[in-house]
Write a structure and sequence with these properties.
The protein is an alpha/beta fold. It has a single domain, classed as Spore Coat Polysaccharide Biosynthesis Protein SpsA, Chain A. About 30% of the residues lie in helices and about 20% in strands. The protein contains six helices and nine strands. Strands 5-4-1-6-8-7-9 form a seven-stranded mixed sheet, sandwiched between helices. Strands 2-3 form a two-stranded antiparallel sheet. A hairpin with a 2-residue loop joins strand 7 and strand 8. Helix 2 runs antiparallel to helix 4.
Length: about 220
Amino acid sequence: MPIRPNRMTTHVSANAKPALLGVLLAGGLARRMGGGDKCRQTLNGTSLLARSIERASPQVDCLILNANGKPERFNDVQLPLVPDSVDGFLGPLAGVLSAMEWAQQHQKDTQWLLSFATDTPFFPEDLGTRLLDAAQRENALIAVAKSDGWLQPVFALWHISLAAKLRDALVNEGVRKIDRWMEQHPMTSVDFTKTGQDLFFNINRPEDVLAAEEILNQQENT
């Protein structure tokens, strides 16, 4: 699929929305899928990664991919590849930290990071807009999606000023649970519940691929 090129705003008016950096989190080990890159699983012939890029790109000004291991396997993906900046496969918080630190080095004017999972093919296409509006309205440093009463902590907006605190939590405090760390900082949530549709259906096991394809087929036939 053609990849939308990254675009960073260089001149922002006083009334413009702040620039957003997006990160696709694909740094996990995918044990329940038998290992490998879960984001390469296909739904009706299109990979989860390609579907994530298609949905995330219009929502951000720059999009990067967080993944570990040999970088050559992502040579076909026209996005900056950012591995975890801490060792040990420490989960999605490590990917968020790595993206924050990448922004501090490469996109120094960017203040907000929007994170996406790559195993959730139906995530909202207005995620960034609604989370940013909520964060600014509530003076929050983190805004997280919620659906059917449950937080979806991988789908969140993070203020990049949190990077040092997040590194300390991961390296020195042993924090691993993403929602636990979120709750320690000014946070708000946005409800994306949609009747009859699970926008955050995620793929963890081989049978979930079949279920997602069934959802896609139903959507195409309505």
